[in-house]
Design brief:
With about 190 residues, the protein is mainly alpha-helical. It contains 6 helices and 2 strands. The protein has one domain. Helix 2 (about 20-30) runs antiparallel to helix 3 (about 55-75), helix 2 (about 20-30) packs across helix 4 and helix 3 runs antiparallel to helix 4 (about 95-120). Helix content is about 60%, strand content about 0%.
């Protein structure tokens, strides 16, 4: 991995996480339709609710996967062709990692919705801090086997992402709210 100043590591960490960010963005922008749980009730409450849809999952997977492919080509050189920058990440970043990050993102989203329904939090309301950072945890967990071997800075990327994702989430949620894509600002 090329050696960069810490400021570059922050930028590269943000690029690294784009498949997770784009999964949420695509799911929110182009979701809707039939709910994943089919309207089923478990112990008197919906399993996930109307906001978790098959269309959202499909578009989230597409957005995250395409993002991962592009980032892998530009920043990880998966084919060894020496294009662009080579691998700037502290681990493997295979061309299919965006799909794994997307799956991890959707696991976090469905798990969060399931928990919200169990503790009677309304759909669209927040479960702090899970809504803001849960997908970073599950994204890393699902993609970790594909990222081996881990380099010395991966822990740093995780800490950066866990720290700044909360603020990005609030910022982009507010923008989505102002643009009419979200019902709440957080």
């Amino acid at each position: 991995m090329a050696e960069f100043a810490y400021g570059w590591h922050i930028l590269i960490a943000i690029i690294f996480a784009q498949p997770m960010y784009q999964t949420s963005t695509f799911a929110n922008l182009w979701g809707g339709g039939k709910p994943v749980d089919g309207g089923k009730i478990w112990k008197g409450r919906r399993i996930f609710g109307d906001n978790k849809t098959w269309k959202g999952i499909i578009f989230g997977l597409i957005g995250g996967t395409v993002s991962g492919v592009l980032i892998s080509i530009f920043f990880a050189d998966p084919f060894g062709l020496g294009w662009f920058y080579g691998n700037v990440f502290p681990c493997n970043y295979p061309i299919y990692i965006g799909l794994l990050f997307s799956i991890g993102n959707h696991i976090a989203d469905l798990l969060g919705s399931f928990i919200k329904r169990r503790i009677n939090i309304k759909p669209g309301s927040g479960l702090f801090p899970w809504d803001q950072m849960g997908y970073i945890l599950t994204g890393f967990a699902v993609a970790a086997p594909a990222m081996l071997p881990f380099g010395e800075y991966l822990w740093y990327y995780f800490v950066i992402l866990a720290s700044i994702t909360f603020f990005f989430h609030i910022l982009f949620s507010f923008i989505g709210y102002k643009m009419g894509f979200k019902r709440v600002w957080y």
